[in-house]
Structure formats: structure tokens, C-alpha cells
């Protein structure tokens, strides 16, 4: 009797083992699994002999093994029940796929949001309904139902002693409400205006009186503001020719006086090899002081209308001795003996 | 998101059309000439071309040649990649990224385990890439996990990797960037040790040494509980 039971138990165990074997997958190297993408990377080498002889069966068995491994991993995930269906919680994908479009820019904070952030004020969750004592029921905090409830409560409005008795209190209350709404709208628009980029100041500002520089500039702009940059623009009677503005590169001819070319090249070599600093401190300081004086003069002339910003970014003004592009006002402060960098 | 176009269109013109009209990010162009058939898979980032890969089709068997039951459209497939090139060669790795991008479907947080139906496997061997598409059949096994069997359904294609035009590494990096809101917030200064106790560090900042009380004053002396402060003559030794 016991023999039969034992043999039955052993048989069941062996069957179970067989079934367990059926989901067991043996791999030389553990495959990399990315459950977020349902992706599996097999790291084992492929049997090329098998590919040549029986390709399709080999690919099928390989895929089956890999999929079994993946499914085993999927069934290890924590599950939850959603609408009578068992659902596994899938983790974040590991393989990073590129986005379709750029990351959107952060919205700029409004004035209140900035203040709340600085003070550490956090939003408090508010309930949708409020208990109203007078009406003895739950009333929404906002919306048309709230407005109706307010109307119910304020079917009559008391008139204060110091107020004109002929004044319409209901109209007054409505007006106050409208003003509040308008004020809110104004603040909202101000927030938007503050956060959007403002248009740059035009090069030619409208003014009552223009000086010669401005007038010349206006003439030049009017002349060149065509599709061909003013090339085919006819002149008016008695109008002076509009000079070309802007920097033009001047190149030496290919074949020129060889002595001049030789001396020029030797000069360059001397400058490169010299130990002298490339920045002429005195020259730079003189230029800077002159620029400051000019600025002060203009500032005084303008009658303190415009606030001068901390130094103009003169394009050509702070070049060093070699004529390389300068980086602005920082240069003259450096000590003599250090090269310009 | 995907647009198929056949015929001998130039890919650049095709992409411009997609950008202007379809608002599309992934595209395949099939072209075939006498003796030569190929596919170009391309993807866009920020309205510009990101990656473009030409795969020559060496052998192709369409879905119709496999006479069996198919699966519904739109099911998220499992993706399997095998073969050494997919782990070592940078070109193949980018191709893997492109294929995953193409075939993976939506991003999900939960998966109905009984609903796994589709598998696509890519195997790289002998300089070719074998794409096979299978249907999943599940059988009971002794354990909770079912035994899985495959049946080939979908198109069977043998590709060979031809020309590629891949994005530079830094462009690829910027395109993979996640917005700041999605990044997981790292909690600083709090640790859990092996025993499970949570410890935190508090940084007090630098102590202002000029405000240290160094002078001994009677009022600051600690008074032992129960003992009255003596008002008698001070012991000169105690000062």
C-alpha cells in the first residue's frame, strides 16, 4: 500500500520537475533584460554552424529560449488586480530612446508663485464643497451653483446708515465684483508681459530734434532698405552720393613688392617671438579714459534722461596691440608682464 | 507617428514633406530597383534628421506566405536581440536603438501578463540581420510561469546593413535628455543602513567663534538640582 503511495508521489514529483524543466532556460551569459521596453539582449554567441544548416529551426529555438527567459522575469514582477485582471507593474525603461521634439522650456513663475516659493508657502488642498450654515446644505466652493446659493442668501441686502438710501446695493455689489475680476485679469496680463521678451529698442528712435549723425543714418537706412540693398536706387536731385558703410577687408595683391612682403613677414615673426606683453597698457588705459569722458559728456548733454549702463561694448575699442579681438573692459586691469588672454 | 512611402522619391524631399505636413518623427522609405531592394529607416529630432540607416533586403517573405492565425494590430511586442555585433559594434547598437524605437509601441506602466502575444527577434550573424516575427503560445507548466512556444507569423526579412548616417554623440545625448520635472528627485542627507534604521545628517554650518562665551561668569554656572546657590564669601581658588 505504502509502496503505491510512494511511487505515486515520486511520479508526481518527477512530472512536476519535468514541467519546471520546461520553463528553465540555461544560458552561458545572463541576458540583459529591459522590462520597461519588453526588451532582451542575448549576450551568448550564436552557433554559426546551426545557422548554415537549419537556420529557421535554430532561430526559432533561440528566440523561444530568450522569450522564456524574458517571460520568467516578467512573472517575477509585483502584480496588482485591475478590474478582475492581473496586471504586472512594469518598471521604467532602461534603454533611452531619443525624444521627438526638444524638451519644453520651464514656464516662468508668476509674481505670487515666486513669493510663495521664497516664503515657503505651500498650496493647501481645499475641499470642493463647503457646509453652509444658513442654507443648511453643502455648497460648492466655486461655480454657478455657488453663485445661485449666494443669490439665495442675499435675497435682501441691508443698507448701512451712512449710505444713500436710493442707491442700488445689488448693482453696487455687482460693480465691486466686476472690478475685482478686472483687477485679476490685469494682474494676469502683467505676469505674462513681465515674462515675455520685450522688443529691442529701435536703432532710430523717434525724437523731436535729430542731430547730424542721426539724420545721416536715417538717409542711409532709407536708401539701403530695398531688395537689392540700395544698389539700383535712383538719387534725388541735389542729393549727395550715399557713402558705403561697414568694414571692408583689404587684401594684398598676390604678386607684390617682395621686399615689402619680406619685411612684413619678419615683423610678424618678431612680434610672435618678442617677450613684450601684447597689450599696451598705457594705450588701453588712455582709450578707456577717453571713452568714459565721452560717455559722461553725452550723459550730461542728455539731461540725465537716459541712465547710462555700465560701459558700452565698443566693438573695436579694446583691441590689443596685435589687432586680435578684445574681450572688453577687463583687459587693462591686468598686470604688465602677462600676455593678454 | 509612422509613414510608409514607396517609389523612387529622394529621402530628403520625403522628409521635408513629413516635417511640413505629417508632424512625424519616424519614417521608412522602401525602394526597389532591378536586382536591388532596400529600406531606409530614418528618425527625426526637433524637425531635423537624427539617424538614417539603409538596410538592404536580401530575402523577404511577406505575411501572406505564412498561413496561420495572426494577431491583432497594435499589440506591444517583446523584442529580442541576439548576436555579438549588437553588443560590440557602435553602429549596430545605434541600429538596435532605432529598431526598438520603431517597434516598441507605447510606453506602459502595467502589463496584462496573459496578453503577451507578439515577439520580434533580430539576430545578427554572418554580416546579416535576421528579423523574425512570432506569435506566442502559452502552455501550462508546473509553476506560475507558463511554458512559451512560438509560431512564425509575420514578415520574415534578412537585412544587410549598408550605408548609415548617424547623429553625433552629443546630438544623440541632447535628444535623449529628459525634462527636469520627470527626473526622480534625489533625497539628500538621508540614508538607510543595512539594519533598516534611517539616519539623517544635519549640517549646522560654521560656528561664529567670536561669539563664544569664554569668560567665566557666576550666573552661567551649572546649578546642581537641590543645591542652593551660595551667597557666602568666594573661595579665591575657585576663580
UniProtKB/TrEMBL annotation, chain A:
InterPro entries listed in its UniProt record: Ribosom_reg (IPR007023)
A GO CC term attached to the entry: preribosome, large subunit precursor
Gene Ontology terms: biological process: endonucleolytic cleavage in ITS1 to separate SSU-rRNA from 5.8S rRNA and LSU-rRNA from tricistronic rRNA transcript (SSU-rRNA, 5.8S rRNA, LSU-rRNA); ribosomal large subunit biogenesis
Pfam families (alphabetical): RRS1
Top-level taxon: Eukaryota
Localization: Nucleus
Span list, region Disordered: 237-341
Keywords (A to Z) from UniProt: Nucleus, Ribosome biogenesis
Biased composition (Basic and acidic residues): 259-301
Compositionally biased region (Basic residues): 302-328
Protein family (similarity comment): Belongs to the RRS1 family.
Cited function: Involved in ribosomal large subunit assembly.
Protein known as: Ribosome biogenesis regulatory protein
Organism, as annotated: Artemia franciscana
Upper lineage: Eukaryota, Metazoa, Ecdysozoa, Arthropoda, Crustacea
From TrEMBL, chain B:
Segments traversing the membrane: 7-31
Residues covered by region (Disordered): 216-239
GO BP annotation list: maturation of LSU-rRNA from tricistronic rRNA transcript (SSU-rRNA, 5.8S rRNA, LSU-rRNA); ribosomal large subunit assembly
Sequence similarity: Belongs to the RPF2 family.
Protein name: Ribosome production factor 2 homolog
Subcellular location: Nucleus, Nucleolus
Originating species: Artemia franciscana
GO molecular function, one term: rRNA binding
Amino acid at each position: 500500500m505504502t509502496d503505491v503511495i510512494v511511487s505515486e508521489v515520486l511520479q508526481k514529483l518527477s512530472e512536476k520537475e519535468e514541467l519546471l524543466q520546461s520553463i528553465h532556460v540555461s544560458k552561458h551569459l545572463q541576458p540583459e533584460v529591459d522590462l520597461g521596453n519588453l526588451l532582451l539582449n542575448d549576450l551568448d554567441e550564436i552557433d554559426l554552424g546551426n545557422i548554415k544548416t537549419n537556420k529557421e529551426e535554430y532561430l526559432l529555438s533561440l528566440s523561444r529560449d530568450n522569450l522564456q527567459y524574458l517571460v520568467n522575469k516578467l512573472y517575477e514582477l509585483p502584480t496588482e488586480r485591475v478590474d478582475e485582471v492581473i496586471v504586472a507593474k512594469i518598471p521604467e525603461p532602461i534603454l533611452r530612446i531619443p525624444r521627438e521634439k526638444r524638451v519644453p522650456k520651464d514656464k516662468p513663475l508668476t509674481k505670487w508663485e515666486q513669493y510663495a516659493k521664497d516664503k515657503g508657502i505651500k498650496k493647501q488642498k481645499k475641499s470642493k464643497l463647503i457646509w453652509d450654515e444658513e442654507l443648511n446644505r453643502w455648497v460648492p466652493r466655486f461655480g454657478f451653483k455657488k453663485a445661485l446659493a449666494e443669490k439665495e442668501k442675499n435675497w435682501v441686502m441691508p443698507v448701512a446708515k451712512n449710505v444713500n438710501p436710493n442707491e442700488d446695493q445689488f448693482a453696487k455689489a455687482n460693480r465691486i465684483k466686476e472690478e475685482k475680476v478686472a483687477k485679476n485679469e490685469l494682474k494676469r496680463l502683467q505676469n505674462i508681459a513681465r515674462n515675455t521678451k520685450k522688443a529691442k529698442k529701435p536703432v532710430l528712435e523717434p525724437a523731436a530734434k535729430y542731430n547730424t549723425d542721426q539724420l545721416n543714418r536715417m538717409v542711409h537706412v532709407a536708401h539701403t532698405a530695398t531688395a537689392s540693398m540700395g544698389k539700383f536706387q535712383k538719387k534725388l536731385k541735389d542729393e549727395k552720393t550715399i557713402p558705403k558703410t561697414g568694414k571692408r577687408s583689404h587684401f594684398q595683391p598676390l604678386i607684390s613688392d617682395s621686399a615689402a612682403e619680406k619685411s612684413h613677414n619678419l615683423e610678424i615673426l618678431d612680434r610672435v617671438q618678442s617677450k613684450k606683453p601684447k597689450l599696451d597698457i598705457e594705450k588701453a588705459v588712455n582709450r578707456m579714459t577717453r571713452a568714459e569722458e565721452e560717455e559722461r559728456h553725452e550723459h550730461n548733454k542728455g539731461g540725465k534722461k537716459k541712465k547710462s549702463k555700465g560701459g558700452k561694448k565698443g566693438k573695436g575699442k579694446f583691441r590689443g596691440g596685435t589687432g586680435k579681438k578684445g574681450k572688453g573692459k577687463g583687459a587693462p586691469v591686468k598686470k604688465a608682464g602677462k600676455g593678454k588672454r | 507617428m509612422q509613414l510608409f512611402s514607396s517609389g523612387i522619391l529622394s529621402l530628403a524631399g520625403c522628409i521635408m514633406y513629413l516635417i511640413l505636413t505629417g508632424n512625424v518623427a519616424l519614417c521608412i522609405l522602401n525602394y526597389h530597383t532591378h536586382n536591388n531592394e532596400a529600406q531606409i529607416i530614418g528618425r527625426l529630432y526637433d524637425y531635423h534628421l537624427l539617424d538614417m540607416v539603409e538596410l538592404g533586403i536580401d530575402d523577404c517573405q511577406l505575411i501572406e506566405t505564412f498561413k496561420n492565425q495572426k494577431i491583432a494590430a497594435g499589440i506591444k511586442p517583446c523584442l529580442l536581440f541576439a548576436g555579438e555585433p549588437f553588443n560590440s559594434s557602435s553602429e549596430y547598437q545605434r541600429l538596435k536603438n532605432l529598431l526598438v524605437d520603431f517597434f516598441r509601441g507605447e510606453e506602459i506602466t502595467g502589463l496584462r501578463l496573459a496578453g503577451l502575444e507578439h515577439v520580434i527577434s533580430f539576430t545578427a550573424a554572418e554580416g546579416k540581420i535576421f528579423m523574425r516575427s512570432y506569435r506566442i503560445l502559452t502552455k501550462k507548466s508546473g509553476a506560475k510561469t507558463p511554458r512559451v512556444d512560438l509560431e512564425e507569423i509575420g514578415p520574415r526579412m534578412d537585412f544587410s546593413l549598408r550605408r548609415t548616417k548617424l547623429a553625433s554623440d552629443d546630438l544623440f545625448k541632447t535628444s535623449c535628455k529628459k525634462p527636469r520635472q520627470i527626473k526622480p528627485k534625489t533625497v539628500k542627507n538621508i540614508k538607510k543602513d543595512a539594519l533598516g534604521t534611517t539616519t539623517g545628517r544635519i549640517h549646522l554650518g560654521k560656528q561664529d567663534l567670536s561669539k563664544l562665551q569664554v569668560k567665566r561668569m557666576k550666573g552661567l554656572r551649572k546649578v546642581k538640582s537641590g543645591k542652593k546657590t551660595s551667597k557666602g564669601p568666594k573661595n579665591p581658588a575657585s576663580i
